[in-house]
Write a structure and sequence with these properties.
There is one protein chain. The chain is α/β, with parallel strands linked by helices. It has a single domain, classed as Spore Coat Polysaccharide Biosynthesis Protein SpsA, Chain A. It contains 8 helices and 12 strands. A 7-stranded mixed β-sheet has the order 3-2-1-4-7-6-10. α1 links the parallel β1 and β2. The chain is globular, with a radius of gyration of 19 Å. The relative contact order is 0.13.
Length: about 270
């Protein structure tokens, strides 16, 4: 049995495409466990389990869904998949699950392109129920690593990184395989099998976008004289980046809804 834990927030637009791609690329014997917050009149018939408990922290939702799954099965070899609401497989997952999990305790996306993030990322992570129980897996942030600029950062998956590192767990990172990039972080294909839209439910300005924002020379000169000017320019630049990312996101979503082979544009 395969158990899929996913989170949707404030919109149901990703539910139908995610379930469609799961049906296409997983064996028939799978169950979806979902956290559905602030989604009015959402259809729940495609979920084996769902809750709308008002929890805000994404990592807590994932941890609790994993607890629910662990309580729902006695089989330690059942497969547990964590999947962001705006992520789904775009190729048959069975070869990856059948070949990688016997060799690796955990298989997960690793977004090195996000300014050097090295932690397992929950947009896609596969393991077994037995290993997750044994590890007492924890998706919360907390444990820090250094980004590409040498600054200490943490994010969802930070504590899981510490757990697998401390125990010397041989986990398999799935990295970005895009041949074409509309954005350096969003709209990613990982390991050739999983698509992650990115920012499907939140502000579309990523940490990577913020790290790449640079003031024009004239603005830098003004900022030396008037520090408030720098803040206003940066805020305006962020709004422009958000508008551009939102437009791209809408365009790609329409392709997803109209064309099941949309991902070949990136692969």
């Amino acid at each position: 049995m395969i158990h899929v834990a996913t989170v949707h927030w404030q919109t149901d637009r990703w539910i139908a495409p995610q379930q469609d791609y799961l049906r296409r690329h997983l064996p028939a014997d799978f169950r979806i466990y979902a956290w559905l917050n602030d989604i009015p009149q959402v259809r729940t018939d495609g979920f084996y389990y769902h809750t709308a408990e008002p929890v805000t922290e994404h990592a807590i939702k994932l941890n609790r869904l994993a607890d629910t799954i662990a309580a729902a099965t006695t089989r330690a070899d059942d497969i547990l998949i964590f999947l962001d609401g705006d992520a789904f497989p775009v190729a048959d997952l069975r070869p990856l699950l059948n070949e990688a999990l016997p060799k690796h305790k955990l298989v997960a996306v690793q977004r090195l392109e996000n300014n050097g993030d090295i932690q397992p990322h929950p947009c896609f992570c596969a393991t077994t129920v037995g290993f997750w129980r044994e590890l007492q897996g924890d998706w919360r942030e907390g444990y820090c690593w250094k980004d590409q600029n040498g600054r200490e950062v943490t994010d969802v998956g930070g504590n899981l990184l510490k757990q697998v590192t401390d125990r010397g767990i041989n986990w398999l990172p799935l990295r970005r395989t895009n041949k074409f990039n509309l954005h350096p972080l969003f709209f990613g294909i990982y390991g050739g099998v999983v698509y992650h839209h990115g920012a499907g439910f939140r502000n579309s300005v990523s940490r990577l976008d913020l790290a790449q924002l640079k003031l024009k020379r004239a603005d830098r000169l003004w900022a030396k004289i008037f520090p408030k000017h720098k803040r206003r320019v940066l805020e305006q630049a962020q709004r422009e980046v958000a508008a551009r990312n939102d437009a791209l996101s809408g365009e790609v979503l329409q392709k997803i809804l109209k064309n099941r082979a949309f991902h070949t544009e990136f692969a």
